[in-house]
């Protein structure tokens, strides 16, 4: 992977969260330079010469430090409605080289592929689903890649594979994938784009 060898500049949103930390740590291990953004940068429990920690909140677009030569990877969660769309708008407006966004399998573009089982998501996310869909739509329209992951775990990195919606399996709460595996798939996409402007599914095994 040429880009991986040379190193890239990556900006990671929500870098203090569980997925964001996995993205940040793995990116540094791959030799990239990382700007890690979090509401409280002190919670980014990593130190590295290639790591810059920056305070930022997606509800305040001016606080999101993104330049045109960076690839943005988002580990944003859904702790409150509006967060994802705020984040997507802020990042798209900043005009980075590429955006790799984390979404949820069974929502928006992947709802049909997921089948009837995806209806259970409304029990977990409720009124936050429209926010997810709107954020995904904004990122896709900007040519970014949206990773629709299933149930996430804190298990270690394991072999995985990434497929498009044409190869998506039915939604299954038992088909879990680790955040470490999802982070690796998102970084693979940043280094070697396979799904620009499309939804991709990170799967275990």
TrEMBL record:
Pfam families: NAD_binding_10. Residues 15-193 form the NAD(P)-binding domain. Gene3D superfamilies: NAD(P)-binding Rossmann-like Domain. This is Flavin reductase. It comes from Lentzea cavernae. The lineage of its organism: Bacteria, Bacillati, Actinomycetota, Actinomycetes, Pseudonocardiales.
